[in-house]
Amino acid sequence: MNAPSWLTFEVHRPYFDGAESAATVIQARAAVLAARRFERRSPTALRFGMTMPASYRRLLVEESRLTAYRAARPGDLPDQLASPAWRRLAAAHRRHTELDQVDRAGLAHWLVAACLPAAVFEDVLPADLSPERCQDPVAAGLQAARAVALFAVEGLSERTAAAYRPLVERPAPTVAHVQAVAGWGYLLARHAGDDAAAPQLLERARELLKEIEGELTAFERTVLTARLALREVMAAERHQDFAGARALLAGVRQEVAGLAAPDEDDALVLLETRRRLVDRALEIAVRLGDTEAEREALAEGLALDPWDVKIRMQAAQSHERAGEHEQALAGYLHAARLGPFGTAFALLRAAGCARELGHREFARVLDERAFRAAPRASATRDALVTACRQDGDEPLAELVARAATRDPQRPYANNWHYRMYASYFNLGESESPGLYARLPSLAYVFAERGERPEVNWQRLMPPAFRGNLIRESGLTEFAVAHPADLPDRLRTPQWDRLCAWVADFDQLDTEQQHQVGVVLYRIGFARLVLELIPPRPAEDLRTPAELRLHHWRDTVRYVAAVGTAVAAPHTSFAIADHPACPTHLRFVIAVFAVVFHARETKSVEQARRWRETGAAALAELLADPGYSPFEKTMMESRFYRSVSFVPFMVKDRAWLGRDMDRAEELARLAPAEGEYQEFLKRENLRACVESRSKECYAFGEDEWGDRLVAEALELDRYEPKTHIEVAESLLRRGLPREAADGYLRTARLGPVSTALGYASAAECLRRADLPVLAEDCYLQALRLDPFAISAARGWAQVGGAGGMGELARTYLADLEAWGEARRTATS
C-alpha cells in the first residue's frame, strides 16, 4: 500500500520465507532464532518474549502484494520461494505426528514465531496436555506454544484460558512455567476486564524464578528477570502508576545494560530484550512528560532497530507534540512504509501534518492511502469522507462510505478500486462517477441484447488498464488469463454468461462474435480476442458482419501493441476498399486511418487521402434517411475532430480552427434523447474540448487552452488525463508547486496514470524545494513501477529527507547494475 514490495519483504523477511536480511526488524528475527533452536534440539532455551497476532501475516501479504507468500501452514509456501530453514521446518510439520516431544516443541515454537499459529493448535498440539504432563519442561513449553497460538488467533477466549490452566494452576519450577504464569498475568492486566488476579500471578512467577535461580546462567536469570519486570511494568501502567513503573524499569535496565550474550543466538535474545525495555521506558517518559528521557529513549531505540515501525511512530509523535510538523510528516511517512501494524494510522497522522503545513492535496492522497490500507476502520473512513466533502466531492464521499461497509459475501467489495471499477474486475456495478468506469458493462448490455449501435463511445482503455487496476487494488485473485479461470466466488451472473459465450464462441454467429469480442477487449482480454478470432485476409471476407468483425480485430491488435512495435491495421485499410464494405464502416476506418497515419507514419499524403475517403463516406451518411439527427450530428462532429490532424500536421492554424470549430459546434448541438445518448454526447464533447485544448497549447494560446481544460474537468472531474493537462499548463507558467497538485490528483484517480502522476508530482515537488513530499511520491512511483530508473534517480536525490537516503542510493545502484547486465546480455 505504501512501499515497494521489496522493502516490506526485506524488513519482514522471516515471516515470508524464513530467512533474514540486513534490514530485517528485530521482532521478525524470532523465527530465525526458533529455527536454529529446532535444529539444535534445544526447545527449553530462551526464545523471544513477544509474538505477533495471526492478523499480522495477513496484513503483511495484503500490504506488500506478495500474495504468493500467503500461508497458514508451512507447506503452503512453494519450495522455490522458501529458504532452506523454512523447507526443513515444513518437512517437519508434514510428519509432525512422527516427531518426538523435543522436536514437536521446537516446531511449535517456530510456528508461533513465524506467525503460523493455527498450525500449532490444530496440527501439532490439537488438545491440551494435562497438568501432570506439563510438569515436564519440554511438555510445558509445548503447551505454552499452544496457549500463545490460541491467543494470537482468538484473543482471551475460553480455549485460550483453558490452554493456560495446566501451566498456571499447578506450575512447576521451570523456565516454561515462569514465563507462562507471568504471561497469563500480563494478558489479564493488559486485555481483561478484570485484572484482579494479575498481581498474584506475577508474584507467583517471581517466586518460581527464585526457585530455579541456581539452575540458570547469569544471562538466563537476567533476561527472565527483565521479562518479568516488563510484565509488572505493564500492570503498573494500567493502574496509572507511572512513577512506580519507571522505578521498577530503571533497575532492570541497568542490570541488562551490563549483560553480555554468550553466543550469537543469545545475542538476538538480548537485542530483543533491550528493545522492549527501551519501548517501555519511552512510553513512560511520554506519560510523565519527561522530554529529556523521551529523547534519550528515542535515540537508543532508533539505534537498536532503525527498521522498527513502532519506534518510527514514536519518533514522529514526539516531533508532532513539539509542533515540528515537517519532521513529524517525514517520520509518519517512514513508519507507514515499515508496517503493517500502524500503516493506516501513520498515514492519517501524516495527513494531519500535511494539512498543518498547507499541503491539502497531498493530505487527501494520504487519506485515500490510509483508507485503502484499512477500509473497515472508522477512522480512515471518516477522514476520507471528510476530505472528500471539504473538496466538494460528494460522489466520492458516498462511494467511500459504501466501500467501508463489510459485505461477507463479497469481501473484495471493501476495496476502493473495486467499488470504482467493478465492471472491469468481474462485470460488477462500477460506482465511480467518472465517464469511463462502466464501459465493459455497456458493452455487455449490447451483447446481451444482440444489438450493435451505429454510434458508440470512442474511448479505448489502454491494454494495461486491467493489469494496473488489479495490481494497484491488491485484488490479485482477479488476475486471470481467461475469464473461465476466475474463481466462482468472484463471479457475477454477467461474468458467468460471458464465460458461456466464450465457451461456445465458434457456434456464435458473426455479429455475436463481434459483440462478445468487444466485451472481452473492454475487460482487458485483448490477447484472447486475437486468439478467438483468427486473422483472415480482407479478400476472403464476404459479408458486412465479417468485415466489421475483422476491422474490430485489427483495431484490438493495433491498440494492444501500443508502446511496442506498431501493428499497422493493414487489414482494416483493405476492408475499406472491399466492395461489400458498408458506407458507415468505410467512414469509421477512414477516420481511424487519418489518426493512425498522423500518430505513427507522419505521412501527410496518406492522412489527406484517408480524409478524402472519410469525407465522401460522411456525405453519403448525412444524406441517408436511415440515420437519426443525433447519429448524423455525432458522426460529423467526430469526423472533423479526427481529421483535424491533417491541418495540424501542415501547421495550417486557420484550417485547423475551422475543423475544430465545426467539431465543437456539433458536439454541443447534438440532439440527445435518453440516458445512453446523453452519455455519448457528454463523452464526445469532453473529447472535443480536450482536443481543442491541445490545439490551443500547441499554438501558444495558453489562456484559451486553460479555459477548455477547465470545461473538460466540469464534464468529468474524475478523468486522470485532464488533470495532467492542468499540471502541464501550470508547469509551463513556472508553477511547479501548483502543478504537483494536478499530478497528485492524477495519481489518486488512477490507475490509468498513477505511476506517471506520482513520478511527475515528485519532480515538481523536488523543484519546489519540498523534499519530504517529493521523496514519498518517488517511492510511490517505484511501488507501482519498480524498474522506473528516473524515479529511482529522483529518490536517490531526496531520499535523505525521509530517512532512507542510503537505501535509496543502494536501490539506484542495484537497478543500474541490473539494467547494465541486461543490456550486456542482449548486445
TrEMBL record:
Reading the lineage from the top rank, the first entry is Bacteria
User: What is this protein called in UniProt?
Assistant: Tetratricopeptide repeat protein
Q: Which organism is it from?
A: Kitasatospora viridis
The organism's lineage is: Bacteria, Bacillati, Actinomycetota, Actinomycetes, Kitasatosporales
